Structure formats: C-alpha cells, structure tokens
Amino acid sequence: MTDISYREITNNGLWKNNAALVQLLGLCPLLAVTGSVVNALGLGLATMLVLTGSNIVVSLIRKRVSDAVKIPAFVMIIATFTTCTELLMQAFTYELYLILGIFIPLIVTNCAILGRAEAFACKNKVGAAALDGFMMGAGFGIVLLVIGAIREILGSGTLFDNMHLIFGPVAENWTLHLFGEGYGFLVAVLPPGAFLVAGMLIALKNIIDDRIELHRATKRAPVIKGAKRVRTTGTVT
Amino acid sequence: MALLKLTSPHAHTAQSTANVMQLVLLATIPGLLALTVFFGWGTLINIVLASIVAVSCEAAVMRLRKRPVMVYLKDYSALVTAMLLGLALPPLAPWWIVLVGTGFAIVIAKQLYGGLGYNPFNPAMVGYVVLLISFPVQMTAWPAPLPLYPDGSSAPSLWQSLQMVLPFLNAEGIDAFTAATPLDTFKHNTGLLVEQLYQKDPLFSRANWAGIGWEWANLGFLAGGCFLLYRRVFTWHAPVAMLGALVVCSALFYDGGSSSSHGSPLMHLLSGATMLGAFFIVTDPVTSATSNRGRLIYGALIGVLIFIIRSWGSYPDAVAFAVLLMNFAAPLIDNYTLPRTYGHKKSRRATEKATEKATEKKD
User: Cβ of A115: how many Cβ atoms within 10 Å?
Assistant: First the structure.
C-alpha cells in the first residue's frame, strides 16, 4: 500500500471510497447536523481538521506503537484533536459551537476517522497520510454540505442562512429566500429527510458510476457483429 | 361428442389484482357519497387531483425503471392509493397538499421499495403522515359540516370549491368555514361532562350518534367494508380485531362520561378515520400480517394504538400513525404466527422451538 499515488489518494477520498457515500461511515453526524448549510459546513470543517491532524500524528508514530496498544493510542490522538477543534470553535465561532453542541465532542466516535488511522495512516508515510486525511475529510465535508443545502432548500426554502456564524458579519445578508417567506416542508428538516436525501445521493453516485463504466466499455475496441476469431489450432480440412 | 366431465371442487380462477382493486374502488363509494353530502365537493376534488398525480407518477417511475407502463397502470393500485389518500385528506385542502402527499406516497413509499407487493408501509398512510408532520396547519383544518354552516351562508358550489383548492383561480378570496372535528372537540374538552358536551355542541346535538356528517361517512365505509367482506376480498380478522380493541379500550376509559372521558365507544367507532382505516387500510394485503392469527394480533394492536394516540397523543386522529407503527411489526408478527401445514400438529423443527407438551411426551 506504500506505493499508492497522490492522485489515487485524492480520487479515493473524494469519490471512489467516499466516507459518507461508499463506506457509509460517520452517519450519525451526517444525519444529525445537516439541517442547514452552516451546520453542515461547520461540522464538515471540524471533521476534516481532526481527520488530517490525527492521520499525520498516527503516521508519525506508526513505527513506535505496538499492535496491542494501537487502537487506544489512536483514540487518544483523535480525542486530542477533537478537543483542540472544540476549543477553537468555542473561541472563534461560539454560536455555531452552541448549535452543534454534543456533535463536536462526538467527532471522536466518528468511525471514519479511526477507520482511516487504522486502514491507511498507520501503514503509510506522513505526506500520503496527511493527503489522505485531508481528502477523506473533504469528501465527507462535501457530502455533508450537499445534504445540508438540499435539506435547507427543501425544508425551509432558504440557502446560506446564518452563514455569519462562520464567516463573520460579511455574510450577514447571504441568505437566499428561494420560495418566498412562509415556506416550510418540515419533513426535510426532520431526521427522515436526512435519510431520504442521503439515500438519493448514494443512488445518484451509483448512477454516475454506472454511466462512467458504460462509457468506458463503449470506448474499448468495438466488437464487430458476426466476426469470428481466426482459428489457430487444429487442422483445417 | 363426449363432454368433459368435471367433479367438484370447481375452483374459480384466483382474483386478479386489477379485479380486487376495482372492487376496493367500488366499495369506497358509500363513504365518499356521505363525505360529499356532508362536507361538500372537496373530497371529490381531492380524489380527482390525487388520481391524476398518482397515475402520472406511477407512469413516470415505470418509464425510469424501464418497465412496461400500461401493464402496471392497469392493476389500478395507484388509483386505490390516490382514492384512499384523497378520502383521508381534509376536503378543500390546497392543491399542493394533494400533489406532495400523492407524489410521496407513489414515488417514495411505493416505487422506491420496488413497487406493488414490496412496499413495507401503506403508501397512502405514508403520504398522509408526511403531510401531517410537514403541514400541520393545512392538515388539521377540516371544513365545517354543511348543515352547521352559519345562517345566511350557503354551501360552496363546485366552482367555488375549485377556487379554494386552486388559489390562483381564487380572485374573489373565497374562504371555507372550518370547524373542530368530534375528536378535536374531545381532545380540547376540559370542563364539560360528556352529556353536557353532547347537548351544547351542535356537532353532537344535531347528530344521531357521534358527530354530524362523521357518523354517516363512517357508516358508509362500514357498508363498503361489508361488501368487500362479502366478496371475500379480505378476511374479517384484522378489521374486527381492530374495532374490537378500540371498543374495549374506549369502554375501559369512558370514565362514566366525566369531563376527563376520552369519548364513548360509539363515538370512537363512528368518527375520525376509524372505519376507513379498519376496512380499507388495515386490510392492505401487502403491508399487514399474512396469517389469520397474525391478522388478529395485528388488528388488535392497531386498535389499541389508535386509542392510545387519540387519547394521550398530541394529534387528534391516529389511524395513520398506528398503521405505520404496526406495518413495522407485521414481519415480526408473521414470524411468530406462521400456521402449521395442514394435517401436521407437531411443532416445526426448523423454525419453532418445541412446545412444552412435545418435550413432555418425549420424556
């Protein structure tokens, strides 16, 4: 696994092995905090930060820890980064920290992070591990963001509401009201909406993959109908 | 010429899905008539709108799934879903309520699970619940029964009803009168004895048993249900168990008609969606339990749940929630109520633990 190319790592993290759509890891935050773009972006960034940090450190100490204490050590590292992120969010985006609440400390239990430490970081060099952490985090964050956007549009008819919680006063009037005031489709904001949207995204990804595969197959040398292979063995009478 | 001689039993061909669905559609007519007589054109408009949406959604999904469209449209199942949802929705609900509910029922609750026969939940009830939790204001505004319209106002004509359903036609700003349903009235009753309530509220004082309009709609569905029973579309087990459980619960908690009473058994039987649920929803062959014993348990638990949610829940009626909850449980019920093959008495070795009797015999 050591000779994996950076390009492949990127492709794996963002698409082919996407944490949310393919591995279906970290579903708890995926379903719980994607009611709006701002929540999704906040948690996506936090997860990405923790994932990158933990991957780097795990990769650095990979030759020093024995198999017996590997998992507890990884959990300690992840918990450390989660605490750092939590403190950072308290310092800079306090309101968002209050909204996300328990889901920030819960990043520790996100199996996507421990999964990457175990499956990739502890077997690879620092550079590759860092990129893997970043790309896996980015892939997860993008899915979070897309689900957040869809649920916000469907559920409350707005987009980029409350973005000033992350970007400061500049973003005060970024809110777009797509269907006018008074619109609301509650089921999209409630938990069933998250399951529905996540399911649709997974279906969409599978469709795109199928199309790509079909496209590739047609690009290969076309088989001429009725053509036969030249006979190479036996005797022709 | 020698005629082929056949001895009994003369088996009929099995009823086709389309045939059953047509019978169900036919059986809703008495209830539909009662709803139309007492609440105006709204229900009919709901059903027409829902049918259009349901058939187009079904056709669109079938095209997407690359299946023959007409074959699936001809089984009438989409129309039955539309009919049941149209009956359940409040008359004169805005058009988009019907659109969202029916679309959700057909596309997500039915077709995404694989179409007719594969859906674990009753599509019409899923559509109803999605609407109820998403748009509580529109979904709890039930129009007043026509006989209770204030003096000087007449029942809305078909054109006026259409204008209320399609607001872009409604230039004159016509509005419907809404009123509390019998179940609403009991939910919000705090200080009156049941007897006083029945005398004071015209909804009850001008009715025979359980709320003007509602009792006839429910009796209509009861008649339709009896017709379906007579035609052997379903067995009596699930509806009777559900109604029985509801009667037992409401009798136990009737509390002698005090102000904290949750209503008499008769009121529970003949108001809300009780009869529609008992004969048209609970009997859905796809989403209910399959064996007769299973259906008894399934129906009874739905009846108990309906009473619990009606009495102590925050929604006035509960048929949809109760049915969906029990749809979840139907496979489990099936697992424990699998009938033994005809002629066999010993417990099934593969799937059942040996009963105590059997083990005693061995000893």
Answer: 16
- On whether both B163 and B243 belong to a single domain, the answer is no
**B113 at interface of A, judged by CB pairs closer than 8 A:** no
Amino acid, single-letter form, for residue B80: V
Interface check B134 vs A, CB under 8 A? yes
A186 to B135: CB separation less than 8 angstroms, yes or no:
yes
- State the Rg of chain B over Cα: 23
The count of domains in chain B is 2
**Do residues B188 and B305 both lie within one domain?**
yes
Cβ contact B135–A190 (<8 Å):
no
- Would you say residue B362 lies in a domain? no
Q: Which residues of A, range 195-234, sit inside 8 Å of B by Cβ?
A: 196
Chain B neighbors of A185, CB-CB under 8 A: 100, 134-135
Q: Which residues of A touch B135 (CB under 8 A)?
A: 184-186
Question: CA-CA distance, B274 to B27, in Å (whole number)?
Answer: 16
ipTM of the complex: 0.74
Distance CA A220, CA B133 (A): 52
Supply B343's token pair. Answer: 């002629």
Please report whether residue B254 resides in a domain. yes
Q: How far is A210 from chain B (nearest CA, A)?
A: 15
Confidence of residue B239 (pLDDT cuts 50, 70, 90): very high
Cβ-defined contact of B134 to A187 (cutoff 8 Å): yes
Q: Which of A145-154, A174-183, B132-141 has the lowest mean pLDDT?
A: A174-183
**Residue B322 resides in a domain:** yes
Tell me: the pLDDT tens digits for A100-141? 888 888 888 888 888 888 888 888 888 899 999 999 999 999
> Are B172 and B201 in the same domain?
no
Residue numbers of the domain that contains B31: 16-178
Instruction: Tell whether B72 and B124 lie within a shared domain.
Output: yes
Residue B5 lies in a domain: no
Residue B32 sits in the same domain as residue B172: yes
CA of A136 to nearest chain B CA: how many angstroms apart? 30
Q: At which of B178, B209, B237 does a domain end?
A: B178
Partners of residue A190 in chain B, C-beta under 8 Å: 133
Q: Is A184 on the interface with B (CB under 8 A)?
A: yes
Cα separation, A12 vs A136, whole angstroms: 8
